[in-house]
Amino acid sequence: xxxxxxxxxxxxxxxxxxxxxxxxxxxxxxxxxxxxxxxxxxxxxxxxxxxxxxxxxxxxxxxxxxxxxxxxxxxxxxxxxxxxxxxxxxxxxxxxxxxxxxxxxxxxxxxxxxxxxxxxxxxxxxxxxxxxxxxxxxxxxxxxxxxxxxxxxxxxxxxxxxxxx
Amino acid sequence: xxxxxxxxxxxxxxxxxxxxxxxxxxxxxxxxxxxxxxxxxxxxxxxxxxxxxxxxxxxxxxxxxxxxxxxxxxxxxxxxxxxxxxxxxxxxxxxxxxxxxxxxxxxxxxxxxxxxxxxxxxxxxxxxxxxxxxxxxxxxxxxxxxxxxxxxxxxxxxxxxxxxxxxxxxxxxxxxxxxxxxxxxxxxxxxxxxxxxxxxxxxxxxxxxxxxxxxxxxxxxxxxxxxxxxxxxxxxxxxxxxxxxxxxxxxxxxxxxxxxxxxxxxxxxxxxxxxxxxxxxxxxxxxxxxxxxxxxxxxxxxxxxxxxxxxxxxxxxxxxxxxxxxxxxxxxxxxxxxxxxxxxxxxxxxxxxxxxxxxxxxxxxxxxxxxxxxxxxxxxxxxxxxxxxxxxxxxxxxxxxxxxxxxxxxxxxxxxxxxxxxxxxxxxxxxxxxxxxxxxxxxxxxxxxxxxxxxxxxxxxxxxxxxxxxxxxxxxxxxxxxxxxxxxxxxxxxxxxxxxxxxxxxxxxxxxxxxxxxxxxxxxxxxxxxxxxxxxxxxxxxxxxxxxxxxxxxxxxxxxxxxxxxxxxxxxxxxxxxxxxxxxxxxxxxxxxxxxxxxxxxxxxxxxxxxxxxxxxxxxxxxxxxxxxxxxxxxxxxxxxxxxxxxxxxxxxxxxxxxxxxxxxxxxxxxxxxxxxxxxxxxxxxxxxxxxxxxxxxxxxxxxxxxx
Lengths: 165, 708
Prior knowledge:
Strand order of the largest sheet of chain A: 5-6-2-1-8-9
Strand content of chain A: 35-45%
Oligomer: heterodimer
């Protein structure tokens, strides 16, 4: 059988879903660069999933990565990410800047930045990206501060995590 | 004096070690070396399956022939069938019973497949999926077995266990003997667009029509072999099929105005096709450069507006196939073209409704033709007479026929994503004719053996179809996200299909990538292609196991790959190789000795102390945070701008799995060292791949591109 990541498998019994192989994973890489006082956030998600979610939530038709791509789509991405993604650094809520996005294969990468961070002891992250429309969505968070690495896996029912070293 | 000191020291150390051993006895260990041969993992070779990976002199395989009469009831979406099965016991064993697969029972009301799938309440769900998950009236699916009888009509004892049925033989079937019996049945066909499934019908409200893509529609014999005994694992819905080869004589009765495609050679063309269609078909049989329409959209559109009350019967004979499927509708447009496979003509067909045009008209048959050509090049000449792609709106393969997705917008336009996805799936499903329809591995047990191998050859066919084909699965970089994911949700490739977490990555993506890496990076095209072809040809129309594949690839290439199978197929280890440190030395000749003098300046450049006659000696320590052993691919860039590629084989890690030191001596000064510059090895962390260390990460590179 095949392959493609076409249908939305929510909680369908497997015999009915011939696309059970589709997988729902986003990766959020967070890196603290002390010399730049910057928390750098790179997120990759599958283009078709994020498109489905945004089209439904905002009643739009993005047609991402095509000639007919909806203009000003960054407005929607920013809105979506601001709704779904929240950070607290050392217990203080922090806003992020939206630097931009780029496409790579079937993925879209978002680049976000939290500036003027002199010190990081802990980062609390809430990540609800795609969990509303894809029950099996997993959001993997990887954190890097110097040589230290941490990772946590967030899901619809467990959308918050604390990165601490 | 020196000698005395040495003796004293020796005594001292021996004494110390004896003393230490009294305190703690050092524990030994088993062979944990990543290059340990796979003899413990692979079954012991025998005269049925040899150590070379080829079938042995005593290899046997059962054969099962079917004679079937099938009637499609379009009004009630129902299949009624009767079959006479002729079972050939070619094994050396005596059989007391036979096992028959009843795949439709996965859709029976009492199917346990639902009960083994945990579920949760979502926040929101789209209406279509809600209806599928919470049907108002459960679909009444599953086989209704009306009779199981001997040839003389007397009842044959049988027991149904979910999707399997045991036939108790009147007397044991001796080696070399045959047994013949009959089954009659009917079932309700599922609407696969509504309820899902690997076959079914799609309903069109316009003109109240149905497209049928029909498979697993008859009770089919299980495989009996010396590896599994009877392969009677339940069909849960995901892990596919294990089937015997045999000859099929099939009569299918449909409404008279239907167009049908099926496995096998059509025996009564003149009865079921119009004169016009026969004429066009004879032109298509000589047309190698473009599809020829046998039934046009205009004709199909006219036909679908009315419904014939009469029926017609399509008669087929299929020799040496492992399964049977068909597709039928009054909506079908049909196009065809001939493909030259090393001097033999094979027909590429497509059947599609107007809703799939112009996408199917422009690409479907051409994609079929490309698949047959590319796969024949890398395996064996396609042995059947045709391959059909059907607008089935799924992705599912059967011998000589497959059901594919993709439709344009209502206005006939389609995006590149829709186009390439349709071509990709078509190539993949047609490719399945080779794996597993001919190289017939056990899909129930090992999904990767057909999906992984097929996903690899699929890439070659895609690139041959369009050299800029947007490949999203199979390149090493494509698998990094999966392999570097949460280890608790990753299974080794060598896992039964029903039990893997991420089916697509586990059974399709990762093995395809592994083969791609073997060909591009580890073995090279010549050795890999020869070995892959050898495996394919050895196991044509036979049942290979993973060991047969692993052994053939090594035996035919002379490359020891046990470490590769162990890492990539038996473990979930990842590849991560980095540069830990670089030391620089120049030499100075003093008498008979050559002294190496370390240059402790920053960077890769040398200070003024290096003499003209000395080479540039770099002592590089490579570390390996990842568990996989892989070759170290290094690109050395010189200060003059030129560069050189050096590949250290994976065996460099034999004595130290964590880090190794290797000297690179050159007559030019280096400016940069990069590991795996072309992303050939699925390295999960490239931040340690550069020397001097890269100051900018992916984020910063993007930011400076945007902000300048």
